[in-house]
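Troubleshooting: if your tokenizer reports a length mismatch, compare your output against this known-good record of 146 residues.
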Amino acid sequence: MTTVLVLNGPNLGRLGVREPDVYGHDTLADLAKACEEQGAELGLEVEVRQTDDESEMIGWVHGAVDAGSHVVLNPAAFTHYSYAVRDACAMVTKAGLVLIEVHLSNPATREVFRHTSVVSGVATGTIAGFGREGYLLALRAVAARS
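Known-good structure output:
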């Protein structure tokens, strides 16, 4: 079975209570359940994780490469400045694996500092602005490419 890690960066553990007008009312547990259900329908084994720690995120991405797992990644604030996360993500696509960058909101419609993603240049694709549905679209994209 194809494995997909759904990785979430800083503050996404606060979904449902942090700026619900921007990020929605679903909690991380709601998001995980939806991803796991979508994955099962697509024949994917999905594991959802969240961290506020950059080094932990990098370790998870390295582990995905080593295990041959595809990645759906919401890098959150790491999107805009973490070249270390970007370099780890580059290893995913160079290994022939799929990496989909996903964002609940559309960063291009928000503050100027959010307009730049250092991750998108090494991602297979980017989905932004569709809330939880963006993750489900990303899983469909992984299934179509694996």
